[in-house]
Amino acid sequence: MTQHSAQIAIIGGGISGLWLLNSLRNAGYDAVLFEKNTLGSQQTFASQGMIHGGIKYALGGFTTPASETIADMPSVWRNCIAGQGPVDLKNLNLLSEDYYLFSDGSLSSKVTGFFASKSLRGRINALSRTDYPEVFANREFNGSLYQLQDIVIDTPALISKLSQQQTNYIYHAEPQVVTDNGEVSYLQLPRDQSLKADRYIFAAGAGNAPLLSGTALEKSQMQTRPLQQVMLKGQLPSIYAHAVSLKTVAKPRITFSTHPALDGDKVWYLGGNLAEQGVGMTAGKLIDFAQRELRDLLPWIDLTNAEWATLNIDRAEPAQKENNRPDHPFLKCAGNCLVAWPTKLTLVPMLADMVLDELTGPNTTLVPQAQQGSYPDLPLAQIAKTPWENSFG
Ligand SMILES: Cc1cc2nc3c(=O)[nH]c(=O)nc-3n(C[C@H](O)[C@H](O)[C@H](O)COP(=O)(O)OP(=O)(O)OC[C@H]3O[C@@H](n4cnc5c(N)ncnc54)[C@H](O)[C@@H]3O)c2cc1C
Fold first, then answer.
1. What would the 3-class secondary structure string for the chain be?
2. pTM for the whole thing?
3. Which atom of ligand 1 approaches the CA of 311 most closely?
């Protein structure tokens, strides 16, 4: 067996693993990453790419721990995109600089009053008709439209940028974790190779649970929360917005994002309450429901020639009471292992800070070593296809 070494081995090539690889290597650590499928292939490419400031979690009319934790994140990402953050995202393509929230005209004055309240000042602006984006500039739209601070990232462009900066350290392999007394001894790799590291970071999303077996982190429980998202493809206008109404005040009725298809069409990707209600439905039944919702919310948009599909995907997170949504990124450390779930794409920079704090903490200091380990002879991991490429070609 050929033995290799590095300071830090990261398992999982979604946004968490790739962001950590970049921030750790930028901080001088000798880090490598292993991805068993393709980069971005699970939650990261299934996400809607919204870097949000938490208004979505304040729709009930009050700010919450989730809305407060996340409030500064759009500006952290904007700094990285300006080339001034811990990870270089200079010139990253944004799908949209703006995100909107629209009501169907039935929103109670309580919630409307809250949107205008002091606690949200500067985070949400009511728009007048002259400033409406194209998709809402229709006489049939009689609701209210608000602009949020959120931005929308093109996740394939994000993963491509993060992987291009570290190409030689991202391997296509499913390592076998070999443990001894709760510590990881080494990773067993294909082609009769192994890799020993000072620290092992599990950033494998839903794949974390099986990886922890035999380590001191075995008791870190994971939860999954399923969703069935809806996709429709055609000659469509762009829409980046939450639809809210009295029916679903506390949660967006539909969360819309728009993504480019390879043939020049656009794909509307629909989440929010629609995707939660869709769990357990057949694809056909959910598509019928989505068509009714869209006729109700955006009756002026012609969808007769659109192609439709759905995507079943689980959110993987640290376990919470009653399977509730976690508010913070999660990091737990024991011995030479760390397990990480960001809980949101938006919160990954915060997760990376937590990892760096842990590595430089008084009891656990790992001094960055510029000198390179000896790296395995393995193929490099490739970037995944998006869910809409998989569904529509
Ligand atoms: C439908 C949906 C929409 C979302 N929208 C948003 C949004 O708009 N904004 C937001 O902030 N958040 C959003 N999220 C949450 C966000 O997508 C996730 O928090 C984030 O992508 C998690 O990234 P990750 O890298 O931890 O996990 P993942 O993206 O799931 O990546 C884990 C990677 O690990 C690999 N892996 C697994 N097991 C192994 C193994 N044994 N060996 C090697 N590799 C392994 C997998 O193949 C995968 O590539 C959304 C989530 C979903 C499901």
1. CEEEEEEEEEECCCHHHHHHHHHHHHCCCCEEEEECCCECCCHHHHCCCEECCCHHHHCCCCCCHHHHHHCCHHHHHHHHHCCCCCCCCCCCCEEECCEEEEECCCCCHHHHHHHCCHHHCCCEEECCHHHCCHHHCCCCCCCCEEEECCEEECHHHHHHHHHHCCHHHEEECCCEEEEECEEEEEEEECCCEEEEEEEEEECCHHHHHHHHCCECCCCCCEEEEEEEEEEEEECCCCCCEEEECHHHCCCCCEEEEEEECCCCCEEEEEECHHHHHCCCCCHHHHHHHHHHHHHHHCCCCCCCCCEEEEEEEEEEEECCHHHCCCCCCEEEEECCEEEEECCCHHHHHHHHHHHHHHHCCCCCCCCCCCCCCCCCCCCECCECCCHHHHHHC
2. 0.95
3. 1
